[in-house]
Amino acid sequence: MGVSTPSQGKFDRIGFPTRRFRSLQALHLKPLKRRAKHGVPACDLQLRSYSVRNIEFFADFALRAAYYLALPASGPVPLPRIVERWTVPRSNFIFKKSQENFERITMRRLIQIQDGNPESIDMWLALLRKYQYYGVGMKAHVWHFEKL
């Protein structure tokens, strides 16, 4: 049985404050981000899903992975939703007046990587492909710059 007071937080049975591991505490915070020095675009990752929960979870995972691979990431930027609607007759032949309407909404998010090392970006994309979340599609635009 834990005892808690509003001014001091939660305590365990003996009276010591309860502590959690830093990795568990970090899950409840926003993902850390690195700042881009020059702002040169390196990769645009577009995430698509029919579920807001899945796309937000995977965007959070992608930003955390980019931070630990030392990639300056920005986002997730919400892009316009794609709404598809269609009407179908409920039955066949003469019952045209009885119809059913359907709608499918696709949510999209954009994560941008700037000033990234090409090897790190390839590793980041491979990691995202390996641990891809169900119901989330990805499309990446990668830029490679060469010296003159």
Quick gist of this model?
The protein is of the alpha+beta class and about 150 residues long.
Overview of this structure, please?
The protein is of the alpha+beta class. Residues 1-6 have low confidence and may be disordered. The longest helix is centred in the middle third of the chain and has 17 residues, at 52-68. It has helices spanning 22-27, 52-68, 118-130; strands at 3-5, 9-11, 41-49, 73-89, 99-114, 136-142. The radius of gyration is 23 Å and the shape is flat. 24% of the residues lie in helices and 37% in strands.
Identify the strand order in the major beta sheet: 4-5-3-6
How many beta-strand segments?
Answer: 6
Distance between the termini: 68 Å
> What is the overall shape?
flat
Summarize the helix and strand pattern as letters: EEHEHEEHE
Number of helices: 3
Major β-sheet annotation: 4 strands, antiparallel
Could you name the ranges where pLDDT drops below 50 across 5 or more consecutive residues?
Answer: 1-6
Radius of gyration: 23 Å
Instruction: Give the DSSP E fraction (strand runs of 2 or more residues).
Output: 35-45%
Q: Roughly what percent helix?
A: 10-25%
SS content category: alpha+beta
Provide mean pLDDT, rounded: 85
